[in-house]
Amino acid sequence: MENDFKKLGLKLTPQRLAIMHLLEGNTSHPSAEDIHGALKPLFPTMSLATVYKTLEALKGKGLLQELTVQPGRKRFDPNPRPHPHLVCTRCSRVVDAELKEGPVLQDAKGFKLIRANVEFYGLCPRCST
Quick one: pLDDT at residue 104? Predict the structure, then answer.
């Protein structure tokens, strides 16, 4: 991801590098607040705005996707390829899922499709017991 950042002409600061390292291979789908909280001990002066700006820059360059599986709280996935997610309605855990066959849209009604989000909601194993 570091090389991608440079290739795309984005300034690489220590804070942005730390955000990228935290996201790399991260499957917890963290929010900006989660990322800020995790990095605050390393960068006490880093603002939440810096985290949001970095995430928006990465999203804008196609390096991560934004999930809106919770009202009022964006989550981020460093895997930019389209894939479905499983969302726990009790604890808000988000897990990547795979479909045997991708969702098929029979008729786009003239829309030029840009992206698709597929989420399945239910209870995770921890919450269903």
Answer: 66
84 to each of 31, 69, 95, how far by Cα in Å? 18, 11, 9
pLDDT at position 102: 60
Q: Is the torsion defined by CA of 22, 23, 25, 26 positive or negative? A: positive
Residue 90, number of CB atoms within 10 A of its CB: 11
Distance CA 89, CA 69 (A): 10
Three-state SS string over the chain comes to: CHHHHHHCCCCCCHHHHHHHHHHCCCCCCCEHHHHHHHHCCCCCCCCHHHHHHHHHHHHHCCCCEEEEEECCEEEEECCCCCCCEEEECCCCCEEECCCCCCCCCCCCCCCCCCCCCCEEEECCCCCCC
CA-CA distance, 9 to 78, in Å (whole number)?
19
Task: Determine phi and psi for 32, rounding to 5 degrees.
Answer: -60, -35
Residue-level length of the chain? 129
